[in-house]
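Example 5.3 — Regulator of nonsense transcripts 1
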Amino acid sequence: MEARMRRELDLCSGGEIPQSFESVDQYLGSYVFPLLEETRAELASALETVYKAPFAEVTSFNELKGDKLQYHVKVDHWRNRKSDGKEPYRTLPGDVVLLSDLKPETVCDLQRVDRTFTFASVTNTVDDETRESGDNCTPSNFKVKTEKHVEVGDGQSNSLYVLFLMNMTTNKRIWNALSMRRNLKIIKKVLCKNDSGEEYCDFCPLKCNSDIEVKFGLNLFSNLNDSQIEAISASLLKTECNHKSSVELIWGPPGTGKTTTLSILLYTLLKMNVRTLICAPTNVAIKELASRLIALVRNSVEAEYEKSFLPCPLGDMLIFGNKDRLKVGSDIEEISLDYRLERLSHCLVPQTGWRHCVATMLGFLEDCVSQYQIYMDNELIKAKESLQHEVQSNKSFLEFARDRFAHIATPLRRCMSTFLTHLPRSCILENNFQRIVQLMSLLDSMEIFLFEDSSMTSEELENSFLQQQMISSEFVDTSSLVYTRSQCLSILRSLQASLDKLSLPVVTNIASTTEFCFQKASLIFCTTSSSYKLHSFDVEPFKLLVIDEAAQVKECESIIALQIPDVRHAILVGDERQLPAMVNSKVIMKFANSLN
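Solution (predicted structure tokens):
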């Protein structure tokens, strides 16, 4: 079998994979057979160790109406979820599973005359109580597509088992990317035989227009050596060119500061608002890089703003991927897509979102006295309707104002804090950012007047709310409640008018909110495989692609990210001596460059 596969490989590839190619079609086509063979080898390896594969007994197996060869599957519980030190198995779309009338211990068990089996692919999982249980459970309710019709009889002798073999998602994405022919700028640049080797564009300056440290006020470069600064400067210089594509390398063995260099490079790109896609081969690697950049941003904010209430603005950063594999922790939670959608949904919903919060606070500050009078009238009506002759103890104006403010200010603060954290600075605009910062401070001052000023009386508070705004008067005490209330009203009105012009999405359409997040973030993090999802979004063009741990990314897998529309430049970061991505097939082992 192996000899036959080797002969077929020689026929398909013409021997070894060439070091140069006549065309993009030849280059991409050279991966087709090796990818198929690698997929076959991975599946064969899974079958050879089927005795330790995660498995479960099927409790319900029903064919879906109108969907040929598609079934709704329910299982009791999964066994063998942990093996070989890997993460506990969790059913995911793209899983290739084996449906068998027995639990096989070897491949030979499947070849017995009295046994039946078929391969199936998980199309989607059904959200149930297991989603709430995290890593302790895996979905027991999912849908599969089989290669042939499955008959399930009645009775105890007709058991059915499902066994996990492999996940095909990445291989499918690579397969589709090999036939995309979308953005080929970088691929053509690398393959071009006639490239004379010029590193720089004839139309662009050979040096950065201004010193990076001066331009962005960065003191981060003080901890870098000359080679690290040179690597960052060269990368930034290439990204400023709109005339020709480029590929920049940041290489070095462990301990040479590649991660630090890359973190500061990304921080600089963030400051420059260069739309960048950052990829890595694994979720662990991409999370580590994202958490380092978040730490740099937090340190910068703490140095710029000496106010404890100010949340860290992270709206320009976004990380996404399969939630079960990404395993978002507190260190990167605020830039994760799912968390961002959840937080923004509370602020963008029409009935209770930011517009409602701002309008309610405006109403309180403008008409608190009349609102109190309505409250008193309603209490009197209630007393008459209940035929209570005893005089009820109603709230004083001060008590009413305290309760109303506490009820209104909490959701308003939450919305404004969410906007500061999750809306990109380029979207929210700098003037709105400063207005929100000022509003948060004014709300704190209002709270102090209402709750901590022991000398405040209901009569004094009522007089303060009845006074007209006097913001511009030179004779107003800026530390008074009257001035604070007037300032708060002014900020709220201008913020209301300005935010209305931003065309923020309506939360009732989750697709538009998701697209909004992808459109507005300037730095997006994901695995190389997950970047495939960006091909299905109509997003703002990326100018730069950064691949960390590039030596461990299969070259054919990088094609997924390299073809993202409009990407013009790429930066590869890694260690050339690092072990490459694992290849399962012995047949193509000597053709390692075909996959790595």
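Remark. Residues 214 and 431 are 23 Å apart (CA to CA).
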